[in-house]
Structure prediction request, 920 residues.
Amino acid sequence: MNPVEIEQAISDLAEAPFDAIEFPYAFLEAFGRKETEIKKLRKGDSNKSDFSGPWGGVLQRNNIHIATCALGEVSRTLAALKASPATTKHKAKFILATDGQEFEAEDLIGGDTVACAYKDFADSFGVFLPLAGISTVKQIKESAFDIKATGRLNRLYMELLKDNPEWGKSERRHDMNHFMARLIFCFFAEDTDIFTTSDLFTGTIDRMSNRDGTNTHEVISEIFRAMNVAIKDRDGSNLPRWADAFPYVNGGLFSGSTEVPHFSKIAQRYLSHIGGLDWTKINPDIFGSMIQAVADEDERSVLGMHYTSVPNILKVLNPLFLDDLNAVLEEAGDNSRKLLNLRNRIAKIRVFDPACGSGNFIVIAYKQLRAIEAEINRRRGEADRKTDIPLTNFRGIEIRDFSAEIARLALIIAEYQCDVKHRGQKEALAEFLPLDSQNWITCGNALRLDWLSICPPTGSSVKFQSEDLFQTPLDQAQIDFENAGGETYICGNPPYLGSQWQSAEQKEDLGRIFAGRTKNWKSLDYVAGWFMKAADYGLHTPTVSALVSTNSICQGRQVETLWSLIYDTGHEIAFAHDSFKWANLASHNAGVTVVIVGISNSLSTSRRLFTEVAEGDTTMREVSNINPYLIAGSNVLVKTATKPLSKQNEMSFGNMPNEGGHLLLSSAEAVQAIEQYEVPAKFIKPFLGSQEFIRGIERRCVWVTDDDLDEANRITWLTDRFAAVRQQRENSDRATTKTLASSPHRFGEVRQTGKERVIAVAAISSENREYLPCGLLAPGTVISNKCYALYDAPLWNMALIASRLHWVWIGTVCVRLEMRFSYSNTLGWNTFPVPKLTEKNREDLTRCAEDILLAREAHFPATIADLYDPKSMPANLRAAHDRNDETLERIYIGRRFKNDTERLEKLFDMYIKMTTKVNA
Prediction:
């Protein structure tokens, strides 16, 4: 269940008649606990409660201890649950007591408490979200209204589509979304005194509509029409008297068609329920992200999980410009002149989000600037002063029309809320209506639009005009900034999309930007287009840009392709936040791993590098330069190499089967082939990929060389397998695979004879291990293309791979899958800088590799996964790795490195010298 569904279920439970016996099970059911779990609790099979009240208690292990009680006994019952030995023994995270009138609960882990009337407990549903497997965060506890409103609007939306199916089709979806935006404004306006009567909108609909809802659409249509007629023009407008009470709104929100979808009786009741919510609690920071999912079929299943948390957004905005402004504010103190200069500066700042979605970044930027301005006004004794910060300084581009409308609406709401907060309700109301008709959010494809025309540079004569705030054509002209000559900051969280996931249209988008600059653009992530356009924009006016991106743009081959072009524009990295999880609320979806990269072509000598050392805990270092790998150091671009730059042995892929599974066997199938079908054992060999190697999974493969083919063809079991391989390859759509049909006894790509001694490296492995999974395989082992291999190489090569030095190099220059390591021979091994080794160095490293292998052998049959678990790594194995690291690092610098940062600095310095020498 998603948060919206949970909130609805909990609200239904709070409104239903209280049943002391059934309540604990109904409460758990509302949080999506499985029917089988509830059944076991009812029978007592899994109920661990020791509570002896009149109805007993219900304790679900590792979750919650619940008890219902007699009237007036709630506090005593909760205390008893907390003191209960069963609560501690069975690790209950929550305790809850209720008598049907009062409700009390406590989060025993986080410390949150709930004490309220029974009918109101649904307002605190966010506290209990861990019961549904959702990792509760502070934002959702503070945004219970946004989730409740999203759920109610979603139910109305779906109910309207039942009776108006054409409004859900592509040609009318904009009309439906525009209607929803109008509703949201009306709900907000009637609860915040923008409308003179608190229930003017919903109350008028309830009074003027038929009980069956048949004329509700006509009533709403007349209300919308009224808000588009200026007061001076109303005498000849034929507005009904009851509609004349609505103010003139303007701003384009109610212009154009006032057609409204037809309402059923149920839809009308949903509308009334939505109007009954307290819309003063709306949070434009995150509400837009939630409500846009209502109109998106693909996102509707995870309603309530779609928001970008304020702390994450501030990781972008703070180093981009807010930290600097706050520092200037602190330095100004109460100096009136300095405060005035800062206020004038803030009024000219433009914030531009070219992938603005529902407006999260620009809304939060606006609110933060208003807070600084308010503090300036307070210190200058001008607390009631009207803001100098115009909404038109906050520009955005969004490809989805509903999201663009919600972004505009969110900014309007944010402006009103800031006026109320910083100036007072009276002043806010006096200046709110009519809305400004200028449009500052453009609906269109950001990679095809001219950013300079949408957010003109300082001194530009280009103008941008729009008659309608909400109906926005793509060929709109431009509006002036009210305060020209200020700073411009670009920010946002563009769509990522790796190269293999891009549509043909998205490929074309990137082609328009990169095709004339590089031949390798097709491998770039979609987000690279935003970085390149931001760099191009900066060529025309001083700009700092900071975008959220998957960490892949700072790893692997994309680094050379993208960052060489960005450097060509004169831009460098001003600040960066290295990899962290951009998480949402779903425990099963911990969020994508991202980086934040700020670029500018007018930088100071100091750069800031942020690192998340623990969840929510970030450190900052000032460094002289940040390279594209987000490491403090020179702007080096590591390029793929076909052979090692140093003197280590060449590394190759493993063998790619490409045989439809007909040459791969389980251990049982291998035994059967040998014992039942008399297949010679020499034709069955151990087969290892990354997972088999790491987890000790046993698999086998058929391995027949050309020299042994005549013998193999005399065995029916083998020829049947070969025939199946031949057919699979002949049926392939790929020409290269078809050609392999002539040799069905072999893997598609063969890189070993099957007799070599192999040093293997897992292609994909967890970042949680302190060392890369590598090892020496028994002769005769066949490795798959999911591993890399050194064939018949000296063992000292393994000492290099097993070192912490190699771990940090691979983790930095190679692509990561989320945070997992993705090894590469051409980019990781061949580029790995190794000093010139003496014979004594090789002997020492060989002994270190042997010690690591012997330490592992002492724990047979423990697997690599077992042995390299950071929490339980055996002491002798850790000691062997420590000796290997010390031996190798003394070869590099004569001592142990202090930390990974020092290791990387040395490796990059060596790489620069080595490649400079090679290219000289």
